[in-house]
Amino acid sequence: MTYKPNKPAFTLVELLVTITIIAILASMSLVALSSSRTQAKIFRTRSTIMKIDTAIGEIYEQYDERSIGEYDLAGDPANKATPLGYVKESGISATEKSRRLQQMLLMAKRDLIRKEMPQNWAEVDSANDIKLENVYGKNVPVRTYYYNAMSGKVDSADGKYKNESAELLYLIIANLNPEALSNFASGEIGDTDGDGLPEFIDGWGNPIKFLRWAPGLYDSEIQPVVYNLDGTLKTIDEIDELRVKNADPIDVSNSGVPLSDTDRVTDDATTWIPDKGFVRGWFLYPLIVSCGPDGEDGLYNYAWESGDIPMSITSANPFMIKDTKDSKPLMVGSPLSDAYKDNIHNHKQR
Ligand SMILES: [Ca+2]
Ligand SMILES: [Ca+2]
Ligand SMILES: [Ca+2]
């Protein structure tokens, strides 16, 4: 009979090592699973955003062709502080008249876009209707559509103006490109605040937001970026160079000159400065943005959910600076915090 030591199949150490290895493998596969779930959400969100982008792009492109004439300009021919008066001012040269006319037509077209593609309740609120019509003389019936759709719903219990840009994004497509809605699965459209106004939904169940113009966006691959990498605004000459190289198709004559740096920062956005013109631009394209995994957009937009948008002609000026942060000027779309970094949007070619 041979002696067989009573040795367990595994020593305690072996067992512990095995358990540890299994635990590590399990946690690795959990991480892999969770990251693949995140990846799936990102992928799904990109897909939804690109469908929205296609639908909005078809609407936006037609503004190149929309004509606005001199006689559509609003105002008093005798008052040069109004668009019509600015163009009609006596004693100006034909060249200057032409330059001013192109400026005003561009502003009028931008204002038309603002009305047809509103991004917040203030832009469709009836209280602002008279001022809107003063800016551009034509009646725009689509505004009534937005007003009727949103009226009585923006004061819902869980927050005034909640999700207004997301809801208007849906309403814009439903109104101006309704066939496009058939491209969306039911899970891509929802009503997160339960007010009866639908929103497009990202992979984390949050509404997908809309900025008609976002000149301050850092990470755009579609439109020129007006900021340097350190967050400072480019100089007026650099911006002007961008403007010339990247003329907006809407700006048919690539007209006008930008404001000076001083004017740009001090412009309180409620005053039209006839002799100085407007900052105007280079190519701008609507921004469709998901907040990403962190659920926050981290972008500057003083108009979002505040109702605070000035209702003068300068509000058709997309290049407005209203605030500063860390002594840096903020334009719509500028980053406010690092929360912007995981956003998913249509300005990145993917
Ligand atoms: Ca809402
Ligand atoms: Ca809603
Ligand atoms: Ca984010």
Indicate the topology.
Layout: H1 12-61, H2 83-88, H3 94-116, H4 129-135, H5 141-150, H6 164-176, E1 189-190, E2 199-200, E3 209-211, H7 236-245, H8 261-266, E4 287-290, E5 321-325, E6 328-331, E7 344-345
Antiparallel strand pairs: 1-2, 3-4, 4-7, 5-6
Helix pairs in contact: 5-6
Coarse morphology? elongated
- Percent helix range: 25-40%
Helices and strands, in N-to-C order? Answer: HHHHHHEEEHHEEEE
Biggest beta sheet summary: 3 strands, antiparallel
Bound molecule kinds, no repeats: calcium ion
Assign the structural class, choosing from mainly alpha, mainly beta, alpha/beta, alpha+beta, or little secondary structure. mainly alpha
Overall structural domain count: 1
Question: Biggest sheet: strands side by side, in what order?
Answer: 3-4-7
Quote the average pLDDT: 77
Strand tally, please?
Answer: 7
Rg measurement, Å: 26 Å
Please provide a written account of the structure.
The protein is mainly alpha-helical and 350 residues long. It has one domain. Helices cover 36% and strands 6% of the residues. The chain is built from 8 helices and 7 strands; from the N terminus they run ααααααβββααββββ. A 3-stranded antiparallel sheet has the order 3-4-7. A two-stranded antiparallel ribbon has the order 1-2. A hairpin with an 8-residue loop joins β1 and β2. The longest helix is centred in the N-terminal third of the chain and has 50 residues. The protein is elongated and about 115 Å long. The termini are far apart. About 13% of the residues have low confidence. One calcium ion binds next to loops.
